[in-house]
Amino acid sequence: MSPEVMQAHMQKWMHWMKSLGEKGILAGGEPLQPTGKQVSGSKKTVTDGPFVEAKEMVGGYLIVNAKDINDAVEISKGCPIFEVEGKLEVRPVQKMEM
Known about the structure:
By secondary structure, this protein is an alpha+beta fold. The protein contains two helices and four strands, in the order αββββα. The chain starts with a helix and ends in a 22-residue tail after the last helix.
C-alpha cells in the first residue's frame, strides 16, 4: 500500500475503534510489534521472533463486551481489515476460577 492508502486505512481503523468505544463495547486492544521472543520446552529455550513457522502473524487484538459470541461476530463485521482481504478470529475470553 502507498503511504496515502495506508494513512486512509488507519483512519478507518481509528474511526471504527472510536465508534466501538462510544457504544461502550470496546474493553481494550492494541496492535502488536512484529518482533518478540518465544519461550518453549522444559528447558525454557528463548528464541527471537518473528516466528517463521507461524502460518499467520497476529497483528493485534481487541477485547469487546458482547452479549455472546454471535454478537461479537456481528461486531467484527465492521472491522476495516476486510477491506484488504484480511481475516480475524473471534474467541471468547476464558474465565478462570481462583
